[in-house]
Write a structure and sequence with these properties.
two-stranded antiparallel ribbon, 5% strand, globular, 79 residues, mainly alpha
Length: 79
């Protein structure tokens, strides 16, 4: 698939790969031709996701605002 066909970005909600290309492959905001403002917002959102300690037992996890994280992601995504 060439760059012209690979134009879709998907914001994932699984907290592992927050941004996916149209093939479903993880992509970093710095590797996509988007505005600096959008890149900053996506980087902050991905940084927030990295704070989710789901690999730890529940009793060792830090509190994570999943509702706030979801709202922030929806605010970034276009309608």
């Amino acid at each position: 698939m060439d760059d012209l066909e690979n134009r879709t970005l998907t914001m994932g909600g699984d907290l592992t790969s927050c941004l996916l290309d149209s093939r479903g492959q993880p992509v970093h905001p710095d590797d996509v031709r988007i505005s600096a403002e959008l890149r900053t917002r996506l980087n902050r959102w991905e940084d927030w996701a990295s704070q989710f300690d789901d690999h730890l037992p529940k009793h060792r996890r830090a509190p994570f605002d999943l509702d706030g994280f979801s709202r922030a992601g929806l605010a970034i995504a276009p309608p």
